[in-house]
């Protein structure tokens, strides 16, 4: 028997497949294209307690080489050996996009992390995190 006016089975199946594919495509696009990472305004108020002297830069470099360089690269260009395995670029610290942020904002990001970057709140002391901020300022 012929059913008139009913779409054939495959067409609604096809439609559902298209909708699911679109949904998956859009959600993976959204995950991949992370929204720009912005520290909250309150982070700017936090002042760097450390001076940018040779000892602090050297201490910051030591922490950086150990904990950050694998992703961020020697000069902070985002080209460390692990960078290729990340879903998103690790950024380039020499750019105005990074250098234009306050010390407090950079400190906040290091403390909080955002996937794939880990949080360093438990891994580093606050002092060490500030040292890395001072070191990042030398990567202009
Ligand atoms: C596993 C790889 C990885 C490690 C290890 C890592 N980061 Fe990151 N970092 C990233 C990625 C990826 C981003 C970009 C995140 C985003 O935009 O969502 C990022 C972003 C940042 C930013 C923000 C830059 C900007 O312009 O806003 C700072 C600051 C930063 N990292 C500092 C550090 C410091 C300091 C360390 C070590 C204590 C470190 N990171 C360790 C992957 C890493």
Task: Please explain how this structure is put together.
The structure is a single chain. The chain is mostly helical. The protein has a domain at 41-136: Cytochrome c-like domain (Cytochrome Bc1 Complex, Chain D, domain 2), CATH 1.10.760. The protein contains seven helices and no strands. The mean pLDDT is 90. The structure holds heme C (HEC). Heme C is lined by residues 34, 37, 67-68, 70-72, 82, 86, 88, 90-91, 97-98, 106, 109-110, 114, 116-117, 120, 132.
Strand pairing plus helix content: what structural class? mainly alpha
Note the total helix count: 7
**Uncertain parts:** none
DSSP strand (E) fraction?
A: under 5%
State the major sheet. none
Helix content: 40-55%
Question: What is the mean predicted local confidence, pLDDT?
Answer: 90
User: What's the CATH H-level superfamily name of the domain at 41-136?
Assistant: Cytochrome c-like domain
CATH topology of the domain at 41-136: Cytochrome Bc1 Complex, Chain D, domain 2
Measured distance between first and last alpha carbons: 76 Å
Determine and state the CATH class of the domain at 41-136. Mainly Alpha
Using only C-alpha atoms, the radius of gyration works out to: 23 Å
- Structural shape: elongated
- Oligomer kind: single chain
Number of strands: 0
> What string, H for helix and E for strand, traces the elements in order?
HHHHHHH
**CATH architecture label name of the domain at 41-136:** Orthogonal Bundle
Bound small molecules, which ones? heme C
